[in-house]
Design a protein that fits this description.
Length: about 350
């Protein structure tokens, strides 16, 4: 059995909570020993001295108990504060852990949803169309592209970028088959890998032939079309494992683009559209300047006519002024002439 109280290095260790209980017991024992030691044998002085000593001892014991209680209270208060601080930190960490767990659960749901989209052919096609449409709406002006645009042969391309001739409008397809590529990545052995590679090559040729036949229309579209791949990994694998097929598709005017490369292509097309718009605006400004020059010439001719009219009017005003001076001079001369007025005739007598 273990010793109680415990010992450390041969020294007896008394817990803090046991010390206040031992103090009264020790005080009582000390008082009993003192009573036995100073028990009077017949004199009253010994009893009085014993009473004084007992009172002084009781006071010291009360002070020691009060101090011990005060230290114990402070210790308990400090322990309670430390416990509350630890509990607060634990609650904060638990809140962080709960938030991280919620984020992980949400991410797991999103991954599951994405896996379901990629596993369903129709949903995967819709996912590629949504991604393509978002990129077109973000990079090109609204009048620079059309969605599900019908061509003259009766087919509808997923998107048509309206570029001027040359090069002309460019059609984009977003329904690339991914089953063979997924089978290639999940192939368990070499035989399954070779079979999946052949299937992928056949799917690429078939899809490139469809796009080249349906989406490249001389005089209506450009001499090339784009196939949008919604995965950077697929784009990298096709260029790394089937570079010959990619080059063959490019010779037929069909180009495979990933989200990253399509972003750069759309940036170049946006710059081309801006250049075309600036040229059109410059031509419009040139026409307006020509009209303004014509109006300026007409204004100059009218100002010259007006100046001529003003000159003629000024000459007429000068002539009128000369005539007025002559009239005034004649009036002055007439007024200066003395004319004898005849006397009035007398009435007949």
């Amino acid at each position: 059995m273990r010793d109680f109280p415990p010992r450390i290095g041969g020294v007896l260790c008394v817990p803090d909570w046991l010390l206040p209980l031992l103090v009264p017991v020790v005080a009582a024992l000390a008082g009993g020993f003192l009573v036995l030691a100073f028990r009077p044998r017949g004199g009253g002085e010994g009893v009085a001295l014993l009473a004084d000593r007992m009172e002084a001892l009781s006071d010291r014991l009360d002070q020691a108990v009060a101090q011990q209680n005060e230290r114990l209270a402070r210790s308990l208060a400090d322990s309670a504060d430390r416990t509350q601080e630890s509990a607060r930190r634990i609650h904060e960490r638990l809140a962080v852990i709960d938030a991280a767990r919620a984020n992980i659960e949400a991410l797991g749901g999103q991954v599951t949803t994405l896996a379901g989209i990629l596993g369903n052919k129709q949903a995967r096609g819709a996912f590629g169309e949504v991604q393509l449409r978002d990129m077109l709406a973000d990079r090109l002006p609204a009048e620079g592209w059309a969605w599900q645009h019908p061509l003259s042969n009766g087919t509808r391309c997923d998107a048509l970028i309206r570029l001027p001739f040359p090069p002309g409008p460019i059609a984009i397809d977003s329904k690339f088959p991914l089953e063979a590529w997924q089978a290639l990545r999940a192939a368990p052995d070499d035989a399954a890998r070779v079979q999946a590679t052949r299937r992928l090559s056949a799917d690429i040729r078939r899809h490139v032939d469809d796009v080249a036949t349906k989406y490249i229309r001389p005089g209506e579209t450009a001499e090339g079309a784009l196939i949008f791949l919604p995965s950077e990994a697929l784009h990298a694998d096709l260029h790394a494992l089937h570079g010959g097929l990619v080059q063959e598709a490019a010779r037929r005017g069909v180009y495979l683009v990933s989200p990253g490369t399509l972003w750069a292509v759309l940036g170049a097309m946006r710059a081309l559209m801006r250049d075309v718009r600036l040229r059109a605006e410059a031509q419009h400004l040139r026409l307006e300047v020509a009209r303004l020059a014509e109006e300026t010439g007409r204004l100059d001719r009218r100002v010259a006519n007006l100046k001529r009219h003003f000159g003629e009017a000024q000459a007429d005003m000068d002539q009128i002024g000369i005539t007025a001076q002559k009239i005034l001079g004649a009036a002055a001369r007439i007024e200066a002439v003395e004319i004898d007025t005849p006397a009035p005739a007398r009435a007949a007598e």
